[in-house]
Amino acid sequence: MGGIASRDFPRRLHIGSMRTMTSRIAILDDWQNVALQLADWSAVRELAELVVFNRHLSEAEAPDALRGFDALCLLRERMAMPRTLIERLPDVKLICTTGAKHRTLDHEAAAERGIRVVAAPGSAEGNSSTIELAFGLILSLMRGIPDEVQTMREGGWQTRPGRVLRGRTLGLVGLGRLGQRMVPIARALGMDVLAWSSNLTPEAAALAGATYASKEDLFARSDVVSLHLVLGDRTRGIVDRDSLRRMKPDAVLVNTARAGLIDQDALYEQLAEGRIAGAALDVFEHEPLDPHHRLRSLGNVMLTPHLGYATEEQLRAFYAGTVEKVLEYLRGGSGVLS
């Protein structure tokens, strides 16, 4: 294994002999440099050249960087694949993504160009990882943990009292597969739980251990609002300016779902003007987040780099599944799809 630094493209790792290999496989957006550690790629190396990109490729630079690759391995939605990019990747025959859905990949455009799209499944721990992160963010916000850690690094001591969760109200926007798993943890911490979504009924909320509330009531009564909806046409911007204005001045908002659920301008205004106590955000409209993004300047915002599913257990399952899918492709007949 050897590393090759490129002036024009992200740092790449090449595995395999270019003289004997005809297929070229790209692993994209391995930001944490773990793809080769968490799965056994040896069988792939015997059949193809394997290249790891560990910095994000913009849509402008991707066509040149990915010239000559016939298979791309994507990790969830780290690399968007819109029609405008797919049409500039003439060599690609296979796109292997991870997880059940890839909302930033244009499947129709891929099909039109004869590109096969396959998905590698994750693990059961994937559901737990996002829920655990959500509560980690909630606790960090309520106890001011990031600020206090920084104060200690700088030689200081306590700067402000934290707040307990017991006796407070958690508002869940979305009570589906992930939202339901928030309920027993919140109950164990002594919290009351409200829930709302456009299709939720009082009976369904009760079965999950929560109390149904209207959208307006949930935002007005909750001390912590946590989002657990799937992003779609009906849910985009569902946390609007009116919803945010209903929140208590000392309430906090947590989003581990999708950035598009929130009116971003309204959220920035509420936070910048101190109308809510704070927010913890793990998802953004464009990722990686721009180094100069306006949210980075706000002291009452805790930002994490889309850590929801980025756990060792989930990534191990994703990459193992990717190896299986790539091998199926490579063994299908000289890399040619039937």
Descriptive labels:
single chain, 338 residues, Rossmann fold, 7-stranded mixed beta sheet, 14 strands, globular, disordered N terminus
Enumerate the strands of the largest sheet in spatial order, edge to edge or round the barrel.
1-2-4-3-5-6-7
What is the residue-averaged pLDDT?
91
The helix fraction, in percent, is 25-40%
Strand content: 15-25%
Point out poorly predicted stretches.
1-11, 15-20, 333-338
Largest sheet features: 7 strands, mixed
Mass-distribution shape = globular
Helix and strand element order: EEEHHEHEHEHEHHEHEHEHEHEHEEH
Q: What is the radius of gyration computed over CA atoms, rounded to a whole number of angstroms?
A: 22 Å
CATH homologous superfamily of the largest domain - what is it? NAD(P)-binding Rossmann-like Domain
CATH fold title of the largest domain? Rossmann fold
Number of DSSP helical runs: 13
Q: In the CATH classification, which architecture of the largest domain applies?
A: 3-Layer(aba) Sandwich
Distance between the termini: 32 Å
SSE-based structural type = alpha/beta
Overall number of domains: 2
Write down the CATH class of the largest domain: Alpha Beta
Q: Can I get a quick summary?
A:
The chain is of the alpha/beta class. The protein has helices at 35-38, 42-47, 62-65, 83-86, 107-112, 125-143, 145-153, 179-188, 202-207, 215-221, 241-246, 264-272, 312-330; strands spanning 2-4, 12-15, 23-27, 48-53, 71-73, 94-98, 116-120, 169-173, 192-196, 211-212, 224-227, 252-255, 278-281, 301-303.
